[in-house]
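It is worth pausing here to work through a concrete case rather than discussing structure prediction in the abstract. The textbook approach is simple: state the sequence, then state the predicted structure, then interpret. We follow exactly that order.
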Amino acid sequence: MRNDRFTHILFDLDGTLTDSAEGIINCVIHALRCLGKPIPDQKKLFELIGPPLTVNFHDHLGLSEEDTAEAVKRYRERYAEVGLFENRPYEGIEDMLIRLREAGFVLAVATSKPEVFSVRILEKFGLAKYFDTVCGSGLDGSLDTKAEVVEETLRRLGVTDRAAALLVGDRKYDAIGASRAGIRCIGAGWGFAEEGELEGAGALPVAADPAELADILIGGGL
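Step two, the predicted structure:
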């Protein structure tokens, strides 16, 4: 039987449901080359998977506001045509979603990725049918923080009791956003976080793989 203390499970997308590293990194490189900017090393590029694009280009890569806006534009040009499908679901994700739905949970996606791209990705891989709503940022700059995305997802689902929902994510940004929205975060340990990152941000427990996550959520081990 599932845990009756929560009924709604929100999922991050990149690094949690799908391995999107190839597409994101290729599009960041494309954007920087278009602007004539230096390309970071591989370790730095992997650190850019998870945060909103404006945070990546402005805060993490030090671009000006003007260059950040242009970099986001160039990134999305390539992403919309090629990058979004340089991507694949992690092994065991669909089985996990099936188990959670059969256990009676309401599932949703809450991602910093633009919603229009997120829906296309989930439909491409046959995962959209498992979610009651897919919520992401807007191409107009709306919902540009994880906390805002989580808040909007809960609004769409009609969730008012914050104890009834939790977020599953693979980066500290997920844990921080969930906390600011008043819900807890469970770590997806198969994603892009560095060692200790999720625990340090309060995402506990951290599941090693999708099957273990389903065991935790269904078994009430929280």
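Step three, interpretation. The two ends are 14 Å apart (CA to CA). The chain has two domains: 8-19+88-219, 21-85.
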